[in-house]
Amino acid sequence: MTSKHNSWVLVTGSSRGIGAQTAIEHAKRGHNIIVHYNSNNAGANRVLATIVELGVQCEKVCFDLNSLPQDLDVKFPRLKDVSILVNNAGVASNEFLFRCSDGEIDRVLNSNIKGTIQLTREVCRHMSKRKHGVVVNVSSVVAQCGNPAQSVYSASKAALIGFTRSLALELARRDIRVNAVAPGWIETDMTATLSEAKREDVGDRIPLTRMGTPEDVAKAIAFLTSSDAAYITGQVINVNGGLYMG
How many alpha carbons lie under 13 Å from residue 120 in its C-beta half-sphere? Predict the structure, then answer.
């Protein structure tokens, strides 16, 4: 298969899990892909190899959302070609608030919010010049209903929803759509450490009776970035099997 698109899709945190599957899903649809990673070079290489086999162009970039390079455009000139940005990268925190250090709070908020906002600002500058683009932010079900021992993480994911809705209003007249997905319990590295008892408890509360897969989320993201969603902006799509914790 040859690429159907001249522009590029950047998926942050795409060396594994939801991000990797999102990159692969877009490659299957003929998009050129930029695989982003911070430390998992081996994972990024595996995703890149899979995408190359699909017959589209693929590059990888490495930077830390906790501290974006000041000269991002110079170091990564391909950013100017990005027409679809999927802000998937993030870090979890499973600690009660009174036990959270300032360093832990900064780690979560800088990665999940500050870095995401800064990267989006840089990419959207180029999208605005072309007057076209799509941004999808990956939030979480806990942003909407909370979860014990995840107050900082939940706050960061809730902030992404506010960011999504406001940015959608800012950029609509430039034909840039901004949406979010809010995954529920998904089979990823983050949930792999759950105890069997916790997994059973979660499964019992999901109306569709199973945890989701990265593919479930990737397909929802790919819909939002496609022309089929051309009249959708400022929305949060829940991919949670019907689960609403409360």
Answer: 27
Cβ contacts of 56 within 8 Å, gap of 6 or more: 1, 2, 3, 27, 30, 31, 32, 33
Mean pLDDT within 25-51:
97
Asked about 244 being catalytic, the answer comes back as: no
Q: Name the residue with tokens 């105890």.
A: 195
Smallest CA-to-CA distance from 51 within 75, 25, 70 is with 25
Highest-pLDDT range among 45-54, 87-96, 206-215, 236-245: 45-54
CA distances from 126 to 5, 26, 44, 80, 174 (A): 17, 21, 25, 6, 11
Each residue's pLDDT tens digit, 125-169:
999 999 999 999 999 998 888 888 789 999 999 999 999 999 999
Q: Dump the DSSP string for the chain.
A: ---S-SSEEEETT-SSHHHHHHHHHHHHTT-EEEEEESS-HHHHHHHHHHHHHTTS-EEEEE--TTS--TTHHHH-GGGGGEEEEEE-------S-GGG--HHHHHHHHIIIIIHHHHHHHHHHHHHHHHT-EEEEEE--THHHH--TT-HHHHHHHHHHHHHHHHHHHHHGGGTEEEEEEEE-SBSSHHHHT--HHHHHHHHHH-TTSS-B-HHHHHHHHHHHHSGGGTT--S-EEEESTT----
Mean pLDDT (whole number) for 179-199: 78
Q: What is the mean pLDDT of residues 34-42?
A: 96
What pLDDT, on the 0 to 100 scale, is given for residue 246? 45
